[in-house]
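So, does this match?
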Amino acid sequence: MTLRAPLTAAALLATASLTAQAQARPMTPEDVAKIESVGTIAVSPDGARVAYTTARLPDVTAGEENGTTTQQLSMAYGPGNAREFLPADMNVSGIQFSPDGRMVSFMWADGDDKKAVWGIPVDGGAQRKLAHVEGAAVRSYAWSPDGSHMHLLVAAEEDKDRTAQSKAGFNSVVYEEEPQFNRLFRARIGMEPDAEPQEVSLPGYVTSFQIADDARTGVIETAPTTLIDDEYVNKKVNILDMDSGTVRMVIETPGKIDDVEISPDASRLALIAAVDMNDPAATTIHFVDVASGVVTPHNAGAPEAVVDVEYMDDGRLVAAVHVGAQSVLRIHNADGSLEREIDPGALIISNVETAGSVIAVEASAPEHPTELFRLDGDSFTRWT
C-alpha cells in the first residue's frame, strides 16, 4: 500500500489555478461582439449609490442588426447589488444626479423627437422630460447648484432655407463657409418643461459648460471656429460671471486642453493641458488661480499622462494618472500638493467621479473590460 501525504492549502490553490488555466481559451471575434462595459458613472450626493450606463454594441453573431454603441441606465447600491433603471430599448447618455439626489437625469431622444434632458426618481417612478429646446438636440447640460434650473448646450438653429435646398438636391457642404455654432439656454426646472428657455450669448464656438457650487461662476470652453484644428489647439477656458453673463477672464493655455474642473469654492481650476504648442497631447495637470489667472503646471515633463481629474467637496483633487502601461490614483490637497498616491494593481483607471468623501472610478484589467469600482481605504472594491 502506498501512503500519500495530505494536500496542503497551497497545493489545493495551485491545483485550482491549473484547472482554471486549463479551462481558459483565447478570445474569439464572437466573444468581442458580446462584450459589455460600464460607459459613464455618476455618484449620488450622499454617496450611497452610483448610477452608471452599460455600453454595448449590437451582437451581430446573434442576429442583431449592426449599429452603434447603446447605453442602458442602471443603479448600483453596493458590490454585486445593482438593477436596471430604464427599459432596455432606451439609449441614454449624460447621466447626472439632481443636486438634491432625488432624481437621475439623462439625455434621450423619444422616438422622432430631438434629444432632450429627462429625469427619473431614484425611489421609483416613470421618467419625465425636464428640459428641451424646440427644434434642437441637447448636446450637454449642467444643473444649477440649487436645482431650480439647468443650462443646455444645444445644436445650431436649423436653417430652413438650407434644409429645403438640401432636400431639393443641393446637399454639398461648402468647406469653412457653413459653420454651425452651438447655443446655450437657461431653462427653469418644474413639473413641466420650460416652454421658453432663455438664450445666453456666448463667445465663439462653445464645446462645454459647467457651473461652480457658488452658482456665481461658470466655466466654458470655446474655440474661435468649428474647425477641428481650432478645437484641438486653439480652445480656451473662459471664466463666466453668471449674474451678468459676461466673460470675466480667459485662461491662456499653451496648447491642447482636455478635462477642466472648478473647485467647490470657485477659487481654483484644475485642467489637463499640454505643456506647449508642440506637445502632441493634453496630459499634464495645470492649476489655475481664478482671481489672477496664473497657471501653474504640476509634474510637467514627467513620463506620465493624467487622464481625468475631479474635485472633492472639501477642495481636494483626485487624478487618474497613467504611468507606462499601468495607472495610479493621486489625491492632491487643496493647494495642489500631493497628499497620497494609491496603486490599484492591475486595474487601469480611466475615469473618476466623487461625491462627499466617496471616490468611484471606472477601470479595466487584463481579465475584464471597464467596470465600476469604489475606493475603500487604499483598495478598490468592485461593484459591477
